[in-house]
Amino acid sequence: MTTPLSLRVFESEARLYRNIWRSSIASSFLNPILYLAAMGVGLGSLVDTNLPGGIDGVSYLTFLAPGLLVATAMQTGAAEGAWKVMAGLKWTKTYHAKLSTPIGVPSLVFGHMLWSGARVLMVSIVFAMVMVAFRVAPVSESLVALGPAFLVGLAMAAATTAFTARVQDPAALPLYFRFVVIPMFLFSGTFFPISQLPDWLQPVALLTPMYHGVEMSRAVVVGVSPAVAPWISITYLLAWIAAGTLLAIRPFRKRLTP
């Protein structure tokens, strides 16, 4: 049975995290505060001075915060799909140990995705509460806005897991972050509307999962209509999650079974 065994994988990750959660305090709790303080309040004061009408009629802090919420979820998902997977396959080889039990490869991958989703949800909830503390949005809107962020984080976890399972050299992971994750962070509408990008780059931004999450989260917080219908964006993100998860199973099986 795949589902109960996937929950066993999830349980093992949760038990491990219970012992090491203190090491993630900075990335999970302090980074959202520093991001919003530096970019939203610090840089935002300069932007608001030069744009008295704001962006979409709101302050730069309000415009920026939902984008950073999605970006944080995206980076968390990518990290879960990169370093943890490489460790399990190559460094600590914990995946080999798990497969010596009744757990099979599909259950291992699904369990990994369940835990990746939990980590994305943890970080997103913290960021949403920081948004409330900065008076960007009330609690209800902040919690609704983390829904798209969760989908983006899980989509990136799935896609990154599928990528990591196919590479032998760990040096590929820093390159992946440099040429995929960071550009997505910078050019998917987090800091400015993608209409400010060159014409040839706008369709590229539109194809990124993060753009769809930013548009939906910002629509909730700012109160504007997203450029893409929400049902299209949600379907697109679910397709990323499903495709990434399924594409990870074959390379996992190839590397972990004789």
Provide a compact summary of the structure:
The chain is mainly alpha-helical and 258 residues long. The protein contains ten helices and no strands.
Textual characterization of the structure:
- This protein has 258 residues and is mostly helical.
- The chain has one domain (2-256).
- The protein has 10 helices and no strands.
- Helix 2 packs across helix 5 and helix 9 (209-222) runs antiparallel to helix 10.
- The longest helix is centred in the N-terminal third of the chain and has 32 residues, at 60-91.
- The two termini are 22 Å apart.
Shape summary? globular
Which range does the strand content fall in? under 5%
Name the average pLDDT: 91
Largest sheet: none
Count all strands and give the number.
Answer: 0
Rg to the nearest angstrom?
19 Å
SS class: mainly alpha
What is the helical fraction, as a range of percent?
A: over 70%
Q: Span between N and C termini?
A: 22 Å
Q: What pattern of helices and strands is seen along the backbone?
A: HHHHHHHHHH
Q: Indicate how many domains the architecture comprises.
A: 1
Low-pLDDT ranges? none
Number of helices: 10
Layout of secondary structure:
Blueprint: H1 2-20, H2 25-50, H3 60-91, H4 94-98, H5 105-133, H6 139-164, H7 172-187, H8 202-207, H9 209-222, H10 230-256
Helix pairs in contact: 1-5, 2-3, 2-5, 3-5, 3-6, 3-7, 3-9, 5-6, 5-10, 6-9, 6-10, 9-10
